Input
Amino acid sequence: MNTATQRTFAHIEDDQSVSLHTDAIPTPSNGEVLIEVAFAGINRADLLQRKGLYPAPADASPVMGLEVSGIVLATGDDVDPLKVGDKVCALTHGGGYASHCIARADHCISVPENLSLEQAAALPEALLTVWSNVFVRAGFSAGERLLMSGGTSGIGTLGIQMAVAMGGEVVSIAGSDEKCEMLRQLGCKAVINYRDQDLREAFDEAGYSGKIDVVLDMVGGDFTSTCFDLAAVDGRIVCIGIMGGVKSQINLATLFMKRLTLTGSTLRRLSTEDKTQAFIDIRTHIVPLIAEGRIQPVIHATYPLAAALEAQEAMQTGTHTGKLLLDCQIDLA
Output
């Protein structure tokens, strides 16, 4: 482990450039751990924050980055069972684009032995997003059918595997034949190429129209109305993204005739207690499946910390398949 007294962090300036800065390594308080960061995840929330559309809470770190993997370097009190030297991945309250980061101990996951720290950095945000929205908010259970929009994203590639491993059936959409095939290999029963086909017609021909129990909608806009048509009676639609726009025209008759539930959330709106409970559930139900190799993170590319802006721009294009990461391992000696 590094014994430096300063951390290095990435600062994105004027939405156009990134520079590396140093300051004192933070000290963990009660219930917290200091992580020597190996890798940090890039998330769409970072892009929105950079553009001023998703401001960080007042008590959050001004440094970007919501998830990391690395080695526990120091601990506060009451962090049992974590200890110095443990390999962990963690959800953070900002501060992930750095060589060192503070995280709540109850928002950490011990890295399974079959995963590298690079792979582990792809876990926290996606696991929490899928668990809290698909399994908790939408109540998805074995035997049900899930439509995973944004299937090739970091959330999508992990969420598909989670739903299949928990006994569900998953269908998805993608923008190329290659991506469609990749999602089938992850376990999707059917994948529709939205660039070549009308989604309603294609799902109808495949026998899924009106038979989707849960939709994780990362698109919003006009896609939300499509979700109404595809949903089964008592279907649940959880909207967590607005890549297709913030406004949608929906048919209220479909809403009440099918007894649909339309809801949404953001992780920053989850209480600390809800996040903690979600991580307890994830450790119980999902981490063992990861340790067995039944759920594996998909990494698209890893960038150096100084290329944080380039990594965010790569996410903006939507051409990636899987997770985009930052390598935060910097020699501070």
The chain has two domains: 6-123+297-327, 126-268. The chain has a mean pLDDT of 95. The domain at 126-268 is CATH 3.40.50.720 (Rossmann fold). The first strand starts at residue 6 and ends at 13.
